[in-house]
Amino acid sequence: MKTPKELGYRMPAEWETHAATQLHWPANRETWPGERLERVEKVYVEIIKALHLYEPIVLLVEPKVDTDEIVKKFIEQEIDLSAVHIFSTPVNDFWARDCGPIFIKQNKKQKFAITDWEYNAWGGKYPPYDADNALPGWFSEAFGIEKFTPGIVLEGGSIDTNGKGTFLTTESVLLNKNRNPHLSKEQIEGYLADYLGAEKIIWLKDGLAGDDTDGHIDDLSRFLNENTILTMISDNPDDVNYKSLQENYEILKSAKNSAGEPFEIVTLPLPKTKIEGTTVDGSEYVPASYANFYIANGVVLLPLYDERYDEQAVSLFKKYFPGRVVAGIPCADLVWGQGSIHCITQQLYGIDL
Q1: Mapped to the 3 state alphabet, what secondary structure does 13-57 carry?
Q2: Where in the sequence is the domain holding 321, given as residue range(s)?
Q3: What's the total number of domains in the chain?
Q4: Which position among 343, 344, 348, 351 bears the catalytic label?
Q5: Is 343 assigned a catalytic role?
Q6: Domain annotation covers residue 104
């Protein structure tokens, strides 16, 4: 059987036109204990309010949740219900980026397919995760889209691509023994080439303190366009993230694309990541980062955290996305759960709603 690469498929860049965005309604009480659930719901509604004006939303809701209550919240915020397509189906949590289908595109025929990677909740940290692991298959059946199954663990938040064959990732995740201990670095690169069309992979090192994914790339460095990479830095040598961010920055400055050309590297300062108290898993840090943005059809959803740097972040995104609205959304209550806007979204292609 031919691989997606042999069939001419590749993973599109996030800025390529979507059919919709996948979201899951927050309901996991272990992730959101006590009043934390109500607080994150408010952020979630703000995200949907900003996003639904530009593309449809596929909202997956755990069957035990009352969808009428969700609809009521949308009506209160004047959200157009025709743009939000609610499906009642089992989900374990709401990190759609990591467990959702990763689409690939066959350019010649303008055809899309799904890659269905294994999902193990970042190395088995948060069981159960069987319902989330089944979601790419659910999308394939629900929308009649061909599916390819690599058979190894990979989360969507662990990779980023410019759509032209260059990928960003981290050694702390893809080479972590809690994912695919039987595979070498070269073998993992082979899977990314065969199933996503990777031609060049830039390996960064470690992620942010408080990132329970072990260091996803979407909190560190992201493509803004085919030739420009945003990376987070800290100018405080005493910051817990200073050393790892500096090391990643140095790697990017010497990185080349698949044609051997250097990238433009732009930076933003890391917002405040130390919190009062601790998260559910006992961390005193959260992975707050402007790199956890989401590019939708007519808008960029940008998480905001720190008044010292928020305006600078908004200005940078307006510069690099002149054809899109930049919607800044305060995300302190969302990132307390150890993820932000990019972590809860997944772009969908080739589906009819």
Answers
A1: CCCCCCCEEEEECCCCCCCCCCCHHHHHHHHHHHHHHHHCCCCCE
A2: 9-348
A3: 1
A4: 343
A5: yes
A6: yes
